[in-house]
Design goal:
Strand order of the largest sheet: 1-4-3-2-5-6
CATH architecture of the largest domain: 3-Layer(aba) Sandwich
Largest sheet: 6 strands, parallel
Structural class: alpha/beta
Distance between the termini: 42 Å
CATH class of the largest domain: Alpha Beta
CATH topology of the largest domain: Rossmann fold
Number of domains: 2
Bound molecules: pantoate
Number of helices: 10
Oligomer: single chain
Length: 287
């Protein structure tokens, strides 16, 4: 795997692969990679001949009081993991490469509808920052396909809509969340948890599982189910940010007629904000 830091080097390496007839797969990341990212890279390798990853901690998607400065930067370890996962080219630009004229006057991409509510409500500007950097990265790499994790369910919906709305010729592949053995969704932010918080953290996914079981059992009073689950989370030590049952494509509140629903949650444990989600298909046969 080679690592490049400039757009010019990136473009020339990708052009060489394309000239050799290779299909280009892309996995954008913010680094501090874990097994979830490795799965994204492996998946890209199943769909493409030449896999490009990027590592860029994008200031545009962090709020003023968020963890931009403390977000872990672990380039050497990340390079090793990417190499092992079959990535051929890593693009690891600095801020001046991505935003040469600064961020204040940067043209932004805003995706209406799916960006609103949920994480969009508690992190104003976040999805505009994500959509802007992802659009720039797509234009720099010009991949045939890009792979994103379903853990960031709303982000994936935002990116699918941006690709559709702007007619970008890129196939978007979503990959199910990779979890620790106890159910906790893998996330770079799990590293912020102390031992006691890490022991509590799996209860977020367990609570989503309880809501899913109730939905499968035919309970459709979403408000009651969510209120009960919120109490469970608070009792476990979480400070819930949101807990919602939505339609998986529109992200609008789900109704009883919806056979597919997604349960989405964000909750704080101490200073760490965890997110998770669980898709429920009421038409799937139980096994
Ligand atoms: O999911 C992430 O790591 C980031 O939001 C992304 C897509 C790399 C954009 O900075």
């Amino acid at each position: 795997m080679i690592t490049v830091k400039t757009v010019a080097e990136l473009r020339s390496a990708v052009a060489a692969a394309r000239a050799a007839g290779q299909r280009i797969g892309f996995v954008p990341t913010m680094g501090n990679l874990h097994a979830g990212h490795v799965a994204l890279v492996s998946e890209a390798g199943r769909h493409a001949d030449f896999v490009v990853a990027s590592i860029f901690v994008n200031p545009l998607q962090f709020g003023a009081h968020e963890d931009l400065d403390t977000y872990p930067r672990t380039l050497a370890a990340d390079q090793e993991k990417l190499n092992g996962a079959g990535c051929q080219l890593l693009f690891a630009p600095g801020v001046e490469q991505m935003y040469p004229d600064g961020m204040a006057g940067q043209t932004r991409v805003s995706v209406p509808g799916v960006s609103e509510g949920l994480c969009g409500a508690s992190r104003p500007g976040h999805f505009e920052g994500v959509a802007t950097v992802v659009t720039k990265l797509f234009n720099m790499v010009q991949p045939d396909l890009a792979v994103f994790g379903e853990k960031d369910f709303q982000q994936l919906a935002v990116i699918r809509k941006l690709v559709r709305d702007l007619d970008l010729p890129i196939e978007i592949v979503g990959l199910p969340t990779v979890r620790a053995a106890d159910g906790l969704a893998l996330s770079s932010r799990n590293g912020y948890l102390d031992e006691a918080q890490r022991a509590i953290a799996p209860q977020l996914f367990a609570t989503l599982g309880e809501i899913a079981a109730a939905l499968r059992a035919g309970q459709n009073d979403h408000a009651a189910l969510l209120a009960r689950a919120e109490t469970t989370l608070r009792q476990a030590g979480f400070e819930p940010d949101y807990l919602e049952i939505r339609h998986p494509l529109t992200l609008q509140p789900a109704i009883a007629a919806d056979r597919q629903r997604v349960i989405l949650a964000a909750a704080r444990l101490g200073n760490t904000r965890l997110i998770d989600n669980l898709l429920v298909d009421l038409d799937a046969t139980a096994c």
